[in-house]
Amino acid sequence: MKHWVLAICVLAGGCTQFPELDALETPGIADADYPALLPISDLLTTEAPRAVPELRDSIQGRVAALRARAQRLSGPVLDAPTRRRLAKEITLPQ
């Protein structure tokens, strides 16, 4: 019975909309043509594309913002007064 409940939850999750991902979509991408398929030999022999300065600046800005966010989230979950209050209220069995 547990497996059926899990399967239903997973299948229902597949019907979920993700507006955050839709907002990141480049305008006009839904109507764009599919990219051309190239032989793997052509891909392996060409030089790898380089990031243009505008793209590099954008990515570096996002990296800095993500690092700052990670730094803010790396602190303690509970502040000192809350930790003291919880420690005072908890009595361990003896």
What does this structure look like?
This protein has helices at residues 2-13, 19-23, 40-45, 53-73, 80-89. The protein is mainly alpha-helical and 94 residues long. The protein has one domain.
- The number of helical runs is 5
**Overall number of domains:** 1
Number of strands: 0
Taken in chain order, the helices and strands follow as HHHHH
How much of the sequence is in beta strands?
A: under 5%
Structural class: mainly alpha
Regions with little confidence, pLDDT below 50 for 5+ residues: none
Percent of residues in helices comes to 55-70%
The rough form would be described as: extended
Largest sheet: none
Mean of the pLDDT scores?
A: 81
**Radius of gyration over all CA atoms, rounded:** 25 Å
Span of the ends, CA to CA: 40 Å
Layout of strands and helices, then pairs:
Layout: H1 2-13, H2 19-23, H3 40-45, H4 53-73, H5 80-89
In short:
The protein has 94 residues and is mainly alpha-helical. It has helices at 2-13, 19-23, 40-45, 53-73, 80-89. The mean pLDDT is 81.
Characteristics of this structure?
single chain, 94 residues, 5 helices
